[in-house]
What we know:
Blueprint: H1 4-12, E1 21-28, H2 31-40, H3 43-50, H4 55-64, H5 68-76, H6 83-101, H7 106-113, H8 117-130, H9 132-148, E2 151-156, E3 162-171, E4 177-181, E5 183-189, E6 192-198, H10 201-230, H11 233-236, E7 238-244, E8 247-253, H12 257-269, H13 271-276, E9 288-293, E10 300-301
Helix pairs in contact: 2-9, 2-10, 4-5, 4-6, 5-6, 6-7, 7-8, 8-9, 9-10
Amino acid sequence: LIGTDLLNECISGIQQNARQGAIIEADYSALEVVTLAAFSKDKALVDALLNNIDMHCMRLSQKLGEPYESVLAKCKDETHPEHKRYKTMRTDIKPKAFAYQYGATAMGIAFSTGCTVEEAQAFIDAEKALFPGVEKFYEDEVFLKVYASKKIHREQSDDGSWRPYGRGTWTAPGGTCYEFREYPKNVWADGQRAEIMEFKPTQMRNYPIQGESGYFVQGMAGQVMRWLVSEDFFGGRVFIINQVHDALYFDCHLSVLPRVAQVVKHIMESLPQYFNGMGYDLQVPFPAEVEAGPSMYEKSKVQA
């Protein structure tokens, strides 16, 4: 939490030719996961977010058939005799979870993490059991609409022949249209290899959540900018200097830092109310955290 000591550190850490201020970083917590929960309304995922459940410990708990509280204690308590082993198991789950969240298949997870295809498929099966509403959202909302809107197009192959392929779309509540196309895929049927055209599930799982998350951040960045303009940038004492993915960065004078941190956090967390007025139905909070310090590298959490 920021206090007098950190403010003094901010001042002492600034070069003579720099502004007498601090760098503020305000970013969303687990934005893509929250967006997925908001769209899918999966009860387990929503409850996990609302109750601040450690998702990786939750996954490990299911894998081991051990109570969540027991797994969490062993993973977090460094004095526990099994801490090292459980922490390693929790760490090993992360790459699979992130890969699957970004749309990877069992083959893709195995390739990127080094596990076997069987292990990757077991993880996917467990994930579907944990969050059935997520799979229902993809199957009934995204996949179904992409296939239902499919239209046939043609493209010319390297050998000069023409090949038909399909294009389908999924339209977000705000009107953004995500287009997907079929690609050739080799399959085996009756002992022979055949080429079929198929949509990529990885793209259909990834693009809507990534795209909508980015759209949300752009909208809230605009709201933050409007507020700063209305405040005349506090007489030139604060500026937005960068945006990286779901984080906004400010160069802020120490005299207005507490006010800026508080209002920016409030604006960013008002995302559901802002976008629900545009046709969305976002029933989960979108938490944001604010840090400040003498540089992007040296920051501490701000109580906002």
